[in-house]
Amino acid sequence: MRFQDAARDARAVVYAGIQADPLVARLATLLAEAEASERWMARAVMNGERTDPQKWRRIFPSLFGEAAPAAVADHAERVLAASLEVANRGEQVRSQYRGAVVEELTARLLARRAGAVKRERRVLFDGVPAEIHPYDVTVESAERPEVYDCKWGARGINADVLNQLDDARAHAAEEEIELRVAIVVFDARRSAELRLDRSTARHDETRLVALESIDELAEAGA
Amino acid sequence: MTARADVVERAAAAYRALADLAETIEDEWQYVTDLTEAYLPSLEALAKTDSGRPLPTGPVEAVDEAIAEIGLITDPHRAIDWLSTFPHVVALAFGGDVDQPAGVEKPGATEPESDEPDDDSPFRMLLRRPDR
Q1: Nearest CA to A169 among A160, A178, A159, A157?
Q2: Would you report the helix, strand and coil content of chain A in percent, each value rounded to 5?
């Protein structure tokens, strides 16, 4: 088994420009330090119709109300501002930014415990045709390699994604390598589990990381 | 009807309308149905923890503002995103949660003694956090 950079087609080049936008890094950094309620706010704002910050402050009184400590409100304000910048990009572009943010957040959390965290990589196995789509994030450790597919919403979970992850795990096992595979969803665990419950694709050895527990990516032994 | 039960009823009605819009994506009918069947009872159950005390204005305004937000949605794809998000936004406003099926309490869960959020709410964790 070996990792390889994905081929850069035209779509990948455009997407790379979004991934490299400082807004993506700024928001991912803020979300990596955020609590779950701030992450819910970010999800709501980036899914939202309105871009008036005062409306969003009213929706989240725990973050912006009079009882909220100044440090909490200050951090939430920065998350709100960055999320609104994404929301203001327009529907087509905002969906690409949202995906890039989840990938960057995943990579940043993993980097707290793992050294070789990479993006847009394929996994190759001897005698097996390579998958077309690269993995969003990989941890390229010889002892404990990991691959992650990142989704903005639970709706992004589908049979293709689950099959690709499980196939990689199975092919690695044939080479006596324990490849850990996971899907990261910036959405509710309950929603993701509902989605998985209906899927006939094998996923019993694919880990689910949802919005509420995304910090576990950074934990040793995770 | 108390303020809390009243606003939860408005939220549930808005959620049903959102589900009606989302259902127009035929390929996602099953997922929309699953989401609605899971979250609607949990959303409605938020009213059952009503202590009878007057609800502070913050949570009521928050939920009404969230209802206004989803009322603006015309894109059924975005409606599906919100079917998963809206119940959690409402629960955050009340300091409750919608992660469990309605009627199933988390171990050790009790009705809050005050209008403050539950001990296991993200809001409470935020408030307790001394620094960032």
Answers
A1: A178
A2: 55, 15, 30
Interchain contact, B69 vs A48, CB within 8 Å? yes
Instruction: Assess if residue B113 is contained within a domain.
Output: no
Predicted-complex ipTM score: 0.93
- Residue to mutate among B69, B82, B97, B99, with most A CBs inside 10 A, is B69
The predicted pLDDT at position A154 comes to: 97
pLDDT for B3 equals 79
Which residues span the domain enclosing B14? 3-94
Instruction: Measure CB to CB from residue A49 to each of B61, B62, B72 and give the nearest one.
Output: B72
- pLDDT tens string, chain A, 222 residues long: the values are 999 988 878 788 888 889 999 999 999 999 999 999 999 999 999 999 999 999 999 999 999 998 899 999 999 999 999 999 999 998 889 999 999 999 999 999 999 998 899 999 999 998 888 777 899 999 999 889 999 999 999 999 999 999 999 999 999 999 999 999 999 999 999 999 999 999 999 999 999 999 999 999 999 766
Q: Tell me whether residues A40 and B122 touch, CB distance under 8 A.
A: yes
**Fold (CATH) for A2-8+115-218:** Trna Endonuclease; Chain: A, domain 1 (3.40.1350)
Interface check for B122 against chain A (CB to CB < 8 A): the answer is yes
Q: At what angle do helices B76-94 and B29-45 cross, to 10 degrees?
A: 20
CATH 3.40.1350.10 location in chain A = 2-8+115-218
Residue A112 Cα, gap to closest chain B Cα (Å):
17
Q: What total of structural domains would you count in chain B?
A: 1
A191 min Cα distance to partner chain B (Å)? 6
Q: For residue B99, is it within any domain? A: no
Nearest C-alpha neighbor of A181 from the set A198, A191, A192, A168: A168
From chain A, the residues in CB contact with B123 under 8 A are 37, 62-63
The single-letter DSSP state of residue A125 is B
